[in-house]
Amino acid sequence: MVNAIFTREGPKRALITGASGGIGEAFARLLAEEDWELALVARNAEQLNRVAGVVHAEHGVAAHALPADLTDTRAIDHLAGKLAEMDFRPDVLINNAGFGLMGRALELDRQEQLQIIDLNVRALIDLTLRLLPHMRQQGAGGVLNVSSLAGFMPGPGMAVYYASKAAVLSFSEALAEEMRPHGVQVSALCPGPVKTGFQDRAGMRKSRITRLLPGHSAQRVARAGWQGFKEGRVVIVPGLFNSLAAMSVRFTPRFALRRMNAWLTGAHRGR
Ligand SMILES: NC(=O)c1ccc[n+]([C@@H]2O[C@H](COP(=O)([O-])OP(=O)(O)OC[C@H]3O[C@@H](n4cnc5c(N)ncnc54)[C@H](OP(=O)(O)O)[C@@H]3O)[C@@H](O)[C@H]2O)c1
Questions:
Q1: How far is the CA of 25 from the centre of ligand 1 (A)?
Q2: Full-model pTM
Q3: Which residue, 41, 56, 243, 248, is most buried by CB atoms nearer than 10 A?
Q4: Each residue of 94-119: pLDDT tens digit?
Q5: Is the shortest distance between the CB of 50 and ligand 1 below 6 Å?
Q6: What b/e sequence results for 96-112 when a residue is b if at least 16 CB atoms lie within 10 Å of its CB, and e otherwise?
Q7: How do the domains of the chain map onto residue ranges?
Q8: Catalytic residue chosen out of the listed positions 27, 36, 152, 161
């Protein structure tokens, strides 16, 4: 059944996190094409203003840049206050902000790894729980959470990141079922590698994952995600190769998955 938000007359509003570049910027451009009013969140105010300016200039939609560091719970309180002040009640939330770090868990900085959880999991769940009541009340709209192919398997060499994406996938699937009777869509977008700033921040430019696996463009992934969300799909894996990879996890022995991912990240090197 088509979500009521896509047939309803009147303005439609979306909040997109991580909209200062990469997949989030691609989502902003895509929704602006369809006349959605946007609230864009990320840390880099200059980049956010650039994206807001571009979508406004190209499509004439209102786009509000709301800079915030989502690893900081006070910043989320402040963001919620700002949205209330603006009377901006999102019909759709795209929880896209996220980052990862490559390296063995004991060799990476502990605090930085905890920030992965704060952003990829805590902030995502916090925003979802804050914004869902309005969607449930109106019986329309929903939440599109950006997980990853990583969410289907353990990832030695990026252990915390893979675990964070498994949490996003599990949370989204469970919530999708809870929200189904209310006409509210919850989906998890699970891309394989995407060519964005993600690899640099994760320190994985030279890894086998980046060198060997084909990467999609941010535009292609956002388009697949938005299309899947509109079709009411709960788990969206863009691309045939990635879909096969996600499916093969079901009948691949767990030890083989662990070894393969350790090889791809180089987690065993220099033991
Ligand atoms: N690229 C891939 O290969 C890949 C594959 C599967 C899944 N994903 C997922 O896709 C999502 C988008 O990543 P991307 O590939 O587009 O990477 P990206 O280009 O690095 O974009 C990440 C976005 O998150 C924002 N962000 C980072 N830290 C933040 C914080 N503390 N508070 C608020 N915003 C923050 C960044 O903006 P600021 O720096 O301005 O804060 C940026 O807008 C992530 O959840 C990622 O895990 C990526």
A1: 10
A2: 0.98
A3: 41
A4: 999 999 999 999 999 999 999 999 99
A5: no
A6: bbbbbbbbbeeebeeee
A7: 13-265
A8: 161
